[in-house]
Write a structure and sequence with these properties.
Elements (H helix, E strand, L loop, with lengths): L1 H25 L26 H14 L4 E2 L37 H18 L7 H14 L8 H5 L5 H8 L12 H18 L5 H6 L11 E3 L2 E3 L1 H14 L10 E6 L5 H9 L3 E6 L4 H12 L5 E2 L1 H4 L6 H7 L2 E4 L12 E7 L7 H14 E11 L19 E7 L7 E7 L2
Parallel strand pairs: 4-5, 4-8, 5-7, 6-7, 8-9
Antiparallel strand pairs: 1-2, 2-3, 9-11, 10-11
Length: 428
Amino acid sequence: MYQIKWIVKRFGFLRRIVLEFKDKLIYQKSSQFLLHSWNAHQTPFKPILFYNFFGRFLWAMKEMIFKNSLKLEGYETTAKDLANAYQHGSHNVLWPQSPLVQFENYALDDDYCKKIEDSLIHAYKLEEKSFDKTKEWNRIATVIKSHFFDKDGALIKDNLINFRKDPKRYQELFNDQFNYLDVRESYTKSYLKSIDLILEYHRLAKKVDKTLLASVSESDAGNNFCVQYRGKRVSEKSLFHSIVVNDLIKVIPFTPKQRSVVLDIGCGYGGLSRILHYYTPNSCHILLDLPETLIMTSYFIKYNFPEAKIGLLDEIVDDLNNFDFFVQEYDFIIISPSVLTSLKSESVDLVINTASLGFMQKEYLNFYLDQIDRVLKEGGYFYSLNKEYNDHWGIGFYEWDFKASYLTRLFEYNNRFSYAQWLGQKVK
């Protein structure tokens, strides 16, 4: 009798072999799972399944015909509709819900608007003693001020709340090179572009930790439009930020036992810091950019972390000599360039710069390199993702005059700009 049962079991083993072969055919290695010998079933957890080349081809062909995996905000759904996917757990979304998938909005109040306005005024006073503005700085300043302030100098709340709603206007504000969902295009064109975006999402899983990719969801601060996929809002910018965060957390041993200080030079509106904050427990993030850009940074960070302690320039400008106290007091500190000299020497654990130092002229670049050398602790890290060679836009990475010595801990080339991703650890 047992012999018959033993033979019958072989059919169950055969099913397992067939399913494992199918997994090898369409999934990346990290998404191939060991099936139970006699009760084999297809792995149902979609958020952690990533396709290989052949799987991506099959998925794209299926999606072109049936259009059943993606939802396009602005055409057929909204960011708030995503909450329906998390009524309870399922195989289709990451459960428990990632904190990066957010549904509660921050209402911009008048008091915080006034702090943003006053912070800009203080930044202008401080920057008067700084370098001469470049042509690009002047362009950004002119465009942003005309968009966000009325003729009386008051902040236009509605424009700030919707600062990412019009992709072309947003790209003009930041000279941004990423692709965004634009509802002015036809649905078919946008859907095909969205298929390309999700193909890139799967391709990145070869380099980016699959659980990080499954957790990251784009914020809807600024009322932007995204592609909804597997219970997340996906954008090309969020994929770029995922690459940077993955580079950092796989090398740097962040620990809640010791407070980490992270300085992001050229932070933009703060999208990278929003994601990294979740992976750096007990940390203070210092966000630095041009005074006009910090209008959006201040709103974006407050929107995503309404309960966090956020130090705007308006609150710290009268006591910059006590910056080390602010680092202990605040979760985020938002500053303009000249405030960098107020940071205490050897007080920063990680400096980040993505695609801005390489676009500066020598005077500005040397200022930042000197300051990075000064504020970074021995054993601290400097992460750069910048173009390598000089051109009319600025000084490439290979021409930087590093003052400190760095032990290279990471060198990659896996981003949509094909810039060098370098992480160095300061050794002296």
